[in-house]
C-alpha cells in the first residue's frame, strides 16, 4: 500500500518536473498556469524561468517525506492563487467569448485539477504539520473536490465536443466516436460518484487505471509526434494525464470517505 502511495506522488512529481523544464526551455508560462495576461509582464522569461525552477524543486521535495507535505500545501496555494488572480479575472472581465462555452474553461479547469492534486498529495502524508501552513490543512481534505470537479467537467466536454475529440483516438482503434463518448460517460460518472462518497476506493482506482492507459495509448504517441509544437502542449497534456492518474490513485488509497459527507453526517 505504501509503495502505491509513493507511486501516486511520483506521478504528480514527474509531471511537475516536466512542466518546470518546459518553463525554462520556452521562457514563457504555459497557458494553464498563467492566463494571457502574462503577455503584459515585463521580463516574462525571467519570471517563467524562476517558476520553472520552483516546480522542479517542488517535484523533488514531494518525494521526500519530511518536506513533501509542506511543499504540496504551498504548491496548492500557488495554483489556486494563479487560478483566481489570472484565469478567473480574465474569464470574467476580458474574455471576448460567451462564458457558458465549456471549452473556454479548459486551461482554468486544468489548473484547478493541479491545485486539487497538490492538496491530495499533501493529504497522503500522515505526518503532523506545524507553522503558518497549518491554515492550509483546513482546505486539504476538500482539495480532491477541485480535482473531481475538473474530471466531471472534462467528462461532459468529451460528450459535448465528441466529434472534435474523435481525432485524438488512436487510428488502430475502431469507432472513434464511440470511445470518446464512453470516456466522457466514465469520467462524468466517476467524478460524481467519488464526490458523493460512493465506493470511493474502487471507483478512484479504476479512474486512475483508465487515465494511466490513456497516458500510454493516446497522449504519449501524440507527444512523441511533435513534442515542441504549440509550446510543447501535447507533451504537457501527456503529463497532465500522468499527474491525474497519480491523484486518482492517491484518492483511492488514502480517502475512505469524502470529508464534506462526514461533515454533513456530523451535523445531522
Automatic annotation (TrEMBL):
Which top-rank group of organisms is this from?
Bacteria
- Where are the membrane-spanning stretches? 7-26, 46-64, 71-90, 102-125, 146-166, 178-196, 203-222, 234-253
Statement: the UniProt record of this protein carries the keyword Nuclease? no
Q: Specify whether Transmembrane is a keyword of the entry.
A: yes
Give the keywords, sorted. Answer: Membrane, Transmembrane, Transmembrane helix
What protein name applies here?
A: DoxX family protein
Species of the source: Spirosoma arboris
Amino acid at each position: 500500500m505504501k509503495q502505491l502511495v509513493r507511486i501516486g506522488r511520483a506521478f504528480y512529481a514527474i509531471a511537475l518536473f516536466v512542466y518546470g523544464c518546459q518553463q525554462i526551455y520556452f521562457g514563457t508560462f504555459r497557458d494553464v498556469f498563467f492566463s494571457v495576461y502574462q503577455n503584459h509582464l515585463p521580463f516574462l522569461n525571467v519570471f517563467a524561468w524562476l517558476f520553472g525552477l520552483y516546480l522542479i524543486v517542488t517535484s523533488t521535495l514531494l518525494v521526500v517525506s519530511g518536506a513533501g507535505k509542506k511543499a504540496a500545501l504551498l504548491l496548492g496555494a500557488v495554483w489556486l492563487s494563479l487560478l483566481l488572480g489570472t484565469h478567473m479575472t480574465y474569464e470574467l472581465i476580458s474574455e471576448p467569448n460567451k462564458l457558458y462555452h465549456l471549452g473556454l474553461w479548459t486551461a482554468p479547469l486544468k489548473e484547478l485539477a493541479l491545485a486539487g492534486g497538490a492538496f491530495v498529495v499533501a493529504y497522503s502524508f500522515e505526518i503532523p504539520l506545524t507553522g503558518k501552513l497549518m491554515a492550509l490543512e483546513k482546505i486539504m481534505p476538500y482539495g480532491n473536490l477541485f480535482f473531481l470537479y475538473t474530471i466531471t467537467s472534462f467528462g461532459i466536454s468529451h460528450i459535448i465536443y465528441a466529434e472534435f475529440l474523435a481525432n485524438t483516438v488512436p487510428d488502430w482503434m475502431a469507432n472513434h466516436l464511440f470511445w470518446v463518448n464512453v470516456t466522457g460517460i466514465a469520467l462524468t460518472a466517476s467524478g460524481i460518484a467519488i464526490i458523493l462518497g460512493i465506493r470511493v476506493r474502487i471507483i478512484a482506482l479504476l479512474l486512475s487505471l483508465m487515465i494511466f492507459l490513456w497516458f500510454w495509448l493516446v497522449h504519449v504517441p501524440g507527444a512523441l509526434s511533435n513534442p515542441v509544437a504549440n509550446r510543447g502542449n501535447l507533451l504537457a497534456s501527456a503529463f497532465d494525464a500522468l499527474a491525474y492518474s497519480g491523484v486518482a490513485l492517491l484518492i483511492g488509497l488514502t480517502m475512505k470517505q469524502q470529508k464534506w459527507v462526514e461533515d454533513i453526517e456530523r451535523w445531522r
